[in-house]
Amino acid sequence: MMVLSFVPSTRETEPLTIEEADVTRRIVDELEGEQRLMLHGRVNPNQDGDLDAMDELKERWNICGWKTYTQFGPGGKGFFLSDEDTGIPFIEKARSLDVKIICVHKGVPFGPKSYEHSQCHDIGVVARMFPDVDFPIYHSGFVPGKDEGPYEGEGSGDGIDTLVKSLLDNDVAPNSNVYAELGSTWRFLMRDPDNAAHGLGKLLKYCGEDNVLWGTDSIWYGSPQDQIQAFRTFQISAEYQERYGYPEITPELRAKVFGLNAMVPYKINVDEARQRAQNGALSRQKENYLNRRDPAFLTYGPKTRREFLNLKVWEGDLPG
After folding, report:
1. Measured between alpha carbons, how far is 266 from 3 in angstroms, rounded to an integer?
2. Does the CA dihedral 17-223-160-200 come out positive or negative?
3. Residues forming beta bridges with residue 299, ordered by sequence position
4. Which of 39, 15, 42, 18 is nearest to 28 (CA)?
5. Residue 250: what are its φ and ψ, rounded to 5°?
6. pLDDT band at 320 (very low <50, low <70, confident <90, very high)
């Protein structure tokens, strides 16, 4: 099952409109009604008209949740969900419409002008104020290029630590209403075992083992198969488990992250979803594929040691 989401934009410049997203959903629904595709509704409350448009997004387009970018807004300046004139009215409107899942882009900064709004200081504040609203945090505050180490309290000022600190400062317990999403985050973390252990370990410890959600951002990177395989085999060392309180990554935990955890905020009945999946066109295609496998996973970059060394030689020949 999938959720079709949106990139930050105004209504006039949307590369994907809600009308186009709905057409995509209807195409998927025609695959024997398997109900595999749901839609977000994009809202940026610091843009004129977005709050008023929420009624139509719910009533006409039957969205399953809201998607917002706190780094985005007029003049390149963002907002915080805890702002009294933007974020709070947005959350209250979502509650009044009874669509109480707000997906928030945090981390992966757009640029220096909105950098502060990419951090997660506001998440714990609104999670505590609105315990009946679920907040999946896209990218979990992760900042590419910054190493993830153990959380060290007050001195931890960037990346995933801003999410951890916000939860602790506001007494938001693990496995409550804040979810950590791994899109792009895991792709960068998996390059370095220590970064991966600390980044993933902190999210599992402080957001909770039931509240970490799989994501790949594969629209930007190509096939996610390398990310899937890395997560299937990655393990946090026994030393780090003991020293920092990180959990062991068991098969049960992997299954939860890969999909079962997302069933809760999206209110999906697992048994019903499995029953639909077993009887549809896609399941028959899968069975046919298993009888004659022909994988073709397009993953960018070197795939063997020889390819990597050749790339390094080629890189050294570049000017400048």
Report:
1. 10
2. positive
3. 222
4. 39
5. -90, 165
6. very low
How many Å apart are CA 272 and CA 263, to the nearest integer? 11
Strand intervals (E) in the chain: 2-4, 37-42, 65-69, 102-105, 135-138, 178-181, 212-213
Q: What whole-number distance in Å separates Cα of residue 22 and Cα of residue 56? A: 13
pTM for the model = 0.88
User: Both tokens of residue 104?
Assistant: 């928030």
By residue count, the chain amounts to: 320
Rounded Cα gap, residues 123 and 167, in angstroms: 7
| Measured distance CA(122)–CA(81) in Å, rounded | 6
**Secondary structure (H, E, C), 72-102:** CCHHHCCCCCCCCCCHHHHHHHHHHCCCCEE
- List CB contacts of 203: < 8 A, sequence separation 6 or more: 140, 160, 163, 180, 182, 212
Q: Which residue has the tokens 């960018």?
A: 300
Confidence class for position 289, pLDDT limits 50, 70, 90: confident
Largest distance between two CA atoms of the chain: 60
CA–CA distance, 104 with 70 (Å, rounded to integer): 7
User: Dihedrals φ, ψ of 102, to 5°?
Assistant: -120, 110
